[in-house]
Specification:
By secondary structure, this protein is α/β, with parallel strands linked by helices. The chain contains 13 helices and five strands. The longest helix has 15 residues. It is flat, with a radius of gyration of 24 Å.
Length: about 325
């Protein structure tokens, strides 16, 4: 069986193809990824209708009799964006460039996306602003199979630029796109608040609040924090910080709904991506980068992570 031809291109690989490379045959459907995937999963061999082919050329994928809800689940895209701080160096203006050099930190924005049941994510990254990274975010989602008809489940930090970028790229229609506040970011805020709320039982108090959040009892957690909110003028205010963070995004904390649908509530994909895509090269000990070099290295790292290395060099050679 090892020498037998596969029944066709893996659907995970089809997601990386351009729409123009997908074979729609004579099917009367929209020429976009979502329509192609839906048709392929509903009736895999329908693209052969009204076509003249030899037996060897006929499509071989079996019909798995997916229900409409199964098809929707398979064409769903999970996505996230997060940042890592990279050390940037600008050389001095003197003959000896080491003198007068300036060191700073700039955020590298990493985006990732994958089909709901796919094992591997598609990555994209840029040193540009979060607003500009939003464009990368959508392109990464497209590479994972996203189109306007897809349902997008986004999980990320609740920072205003990230939230705005998600809505700009994937829309505000909750039936097509849903932003979920990263549960572990919320837990970090509550963990800091726990030291002030229950200094002798921080872990127990934190676990209790996490349990309430998983049951969508967000208002209960907020009301528990309110009596002990620090004064506005107080600089160290972990309770107020946690309250403000959740209050602003409480509409995006449907953890019970996400868990029931088998969807993630944490941005684990992008967090692990930071480790092997960005940090393994750009954050090695003692490394500092010129800004343009860091951007170029990010593109090489994401190309490698997406298994596009060979295709990249072939396209470079032909152009």
């Amino acid at each position: 069986m090892e020498k037998e031809q596969p029944i066709g291109t893996e659907l995970t690989e089809a997601g990386s193809k351009l729409v123009s490379q997908l074979d729609f045959g004579f099917m009367p459907i929209e020429h976009d990824r979502a329509s192609w995937y839906t048709q392929k999963l509903t009736d895999p061999r329908s693209f052969d209708v009204n076509r003249v082919k030899t037996p060897e050329e006929l499509l071989k994928m079996p019909n798995f009799t997916f229900s409409p809800s199964d098809v929707k689940s398979i064409t769903m895209v999970l996505t996230s964006m997060d940042g890592s701080m990279v050390r940037i160096v600008e050389p001095g203006q003197q003959e000896d460039k080491r003198k007068g050099k300036q060191l700073s930190f700039k955020q590298a924005n990493l985006c990732c996306a994958r089909a709901k049941d796919a094992a591997d994510a598609v990555y994209g990254a840029t040193m540009a602003s979060v607003k500009m990274a939003g464009w990368v975010w959508q392109e990464v989602a497209k590479a994972a199979g996203w189109v306007e008809k897809s349902f997008t489940h986004g999980v990320a930090d609740g920072a205003e630029p990230v939230f705005n970028a998600f809505e700009e790229q994937f829309g505000t229609d909750k039936t097509k796109a849903k932003f979920t506040l990263d549960f572990y970011h919320v837990s970090e805020y509550l963990g800091k608040a726990a030291e002030a709320m229950a200094p002798d039982q921080t872990k127990g108090w934190l676990h209790q609040q996490q349990g309430r959040l998983l049951q969508n009892r967000v208002e209960e957690v907020l009301k528990m924090l309110e009596p002990k909110l620090e004064p506005e003028e107080q600089k160290e205010a972990p309770i107020r910080g946690a309250h403000r963070y959740m209050q602003k995004r409480k509409a995006n904390m449907d953890y019970a709904g996400a868990k029931a649908a088998g969807l993630p509530i944490g941005s684990g994909d992008v967090e692990s991506g930071h480790s092997h895509v960005i940090q393994a090269r750009l954050l090695i000990s003692g490394a500092s980068w010129r800004l343009h070099n860091s951007e170029a290295m990010l593109q090489l790292r994401t190309t490698r992570a997406n298994n596009d290395w060979d295709r990249y060099w072939k396209e470079l050679a032909t152009n």
